[in-house]
Write a structure and sequence with these properties.
239 residues, five-stranded mixed sheet, alpha+beta, 6 helices
Length: 239
């Protein structure tokens, strides 16, 4: 998704060989083969999204990737380390990011988290949108919190029982809502039931992220099917 524009170099430059610096070998032995290794580059990748994203949409895409990537390949502890390293690197704390990679025995042959390998030679690829925001990111609409825009329909419609599965516990629960209620309203109902703030919830059905303004009846949920609720464990970003 999106195209790479270039890189923005950190003013700090390469890490010096001081006592507080983590040193890395130039190569690592992986499953009987020698693979060249590089220190993490002190650079921020600049890229442009094909479709402009808001901060909330970018956060949702990142949450979706980090929450689902371990289910397909690789080891969860390595994915956790890569996520922590990505957060540190985006905050320009490259020394911390390097220490995290070293502690997990992760090598980065090209110096970027876009392609990594664990000590067994398993390949891990982190999408660029998890490493830096696009240069064409747009601001949230000013009317986001407008009562008129976010008011619920006067008629909630036919009563429905949604089956939800929470990512934090993997358990299923039933949430009773109206067919004409918005997903935003459903998130509020889930908060009342489970104490999970709406901003921490990302709802997915059929592999698609459900937007807050979408009506339940518009999702066309097949009876008995489950809506996945990915719950963010990250601290709330500053507004």
């Amino acid at each position: 998704m999106g195209g790479c524009i270039g890189i923005s170099r950190s003013r700090s430059g390469p890490m010096e060989g001081s006592s507080g610096t983590v040193s890395r070998p130039n190569s690592v032995f992986v499953v009987g083969a020698l693979r060249k290794n590089q220190s993490l580059c002190h650079e921020t990748i600049r890229w442009k999204s094909d479709v402009p994203l808001t901060e909330g949409q970018l956060r949702s895409k990142r949450d979706e990737f980090w929450d689902t990537a371990p289910a397909f390949e690789g080891r969860k502890e390595i994915w956790d380390a890569l996520r922590a390293a990505a957060v540190a690197a985006e905050a320009m704390d490259f020394q911390l990011a390097q220490a995290i990679l070293d502690g997990a025995s992760v090598s980065v042959p090209n110096g970027y988290l876009t392609e990594c390998y664990d000590e067994w030679g398993t390949r891990y690829q982190v999408p660029i949108y998890c490493l830096s925001p696009p240069i064409n990111m747009v601001k949230e609409a000013c009317g986001r919190d407008s009562p008129a825009e976010w008011s619920e329909p006067a008629d909630g419609g036919a009563a429905l029982a949604l089956r939800l599965r929470l990512s934090t516990t993997c358990r299923e629960l039933e949430l009773r809502v109206g067919a004409r209620h918005t997903i935003a309203h459903c998130k509020t109902e889930l908060q009342a039931l489970e104490g999970i703030e709406p901003w921490r919830q990302r709802w997915f059905y059929g592999g698609k992220l459900l937007g807050d303004r979408l009506l339940v009846e518009e999702v066309r949920i097949t009876p008995g099917y489950v809506v996945q609720v990915i719950v963010s464990t990250e601290p709330r970003p500053p507004s």
